[in-house]
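Review form for a predicted model. The reviewer records the input and the model, then writes brief findings.
Reviewer: anonymous (R2)
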Amino acid sequence: MTAITRRALPLLALAATPAIAQPAWPDRPVRVVVPFPGGSTPDIAARAVAAHFTTVFGQPFVIDNRAGAGGNIGTDAVAKATDGHVIGVSINSPLAVAPALFPNLPYDPRRDLVAISLLARLPQLLVVHPSVPASDVAGFIAHARANPGKMTYGSVGAGSGSHLAMEEFMARTETRMEHAPYRGFPQAVLDLVAGRIEAMFVSSGAVLAQVREGQVRALAVTSDTRITQLPAVPTLAEAGLPGAASYGWIALIAPAATPAPRVARLAQEAQAALADPRTKATLEATGFEIVASSPADAAAYIAAEAERWGGLVRRLDIKPDA
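Model under review:
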């Protein structure tokens, strides 16, 4: 067992509980809190597992979209739930980055939440406007170094995966660009196509069409291996930046007081839901890779992400958007 796993298990409420008789659960509808709007990828994943849960548990699992504050509002709602009939779906920033980014965060993911399963993950693409005189990562680094502070990159806000991937990239390559935060990828991609920003790390599914049509140029992918949708695009490691792989991810979570047997059963059924060919096809069409992990593996993964990206936030003194 690694040091990360040893730390993650108690911190994410995975301690064993005595084997005692439990009342039937659920005995009424269960709320599935999604801290993003309907139609978002976390919402799609949540609805896929909720439909399966409704069938196997015999009670409705009802989606409750609580968007706002980059996912912190809905994630806090899960952390504060006490009626035993609330679970949630959340992502990187509220679970792994927010504690380092927001000094007054109203919840502590390590103390107040339990990881049930990592559902899926998605790499990002480093993309540039065609006007940028670079056909590969080396050329992009050279151009950025020759024009410090003159280029602008987009993201979906401070602490997001797109923002932190570029901050890490700049720190590693000794480059400097100006940050332009957006409320979502659609507007950021529109501005990239229009040339109002020059570069961005963006979820692969949000920009595949523009890459294929030549409206933007993909220089690298943040995954461990090349992606099937763009097999000619190298990974960051292949481009000379080993150890820079990163993913956006979606996790199924519950309040920390949730009994361990219930967590285990929910994880088992989440794995069954994501094994359904239709569900796999829906998520994979947007570029996601199905993970469907155990609670222990999800806890360890989230702890490692918090250490990596929370450490970056503190080291670079990154602040929330004003």
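Findings: The CA atoms of residues 156 and 285 lie 22 Å apart.
Further findings: The chain has two domains: 3-13+28-121+249-316, 123-221.
Recommendation: see findings above.
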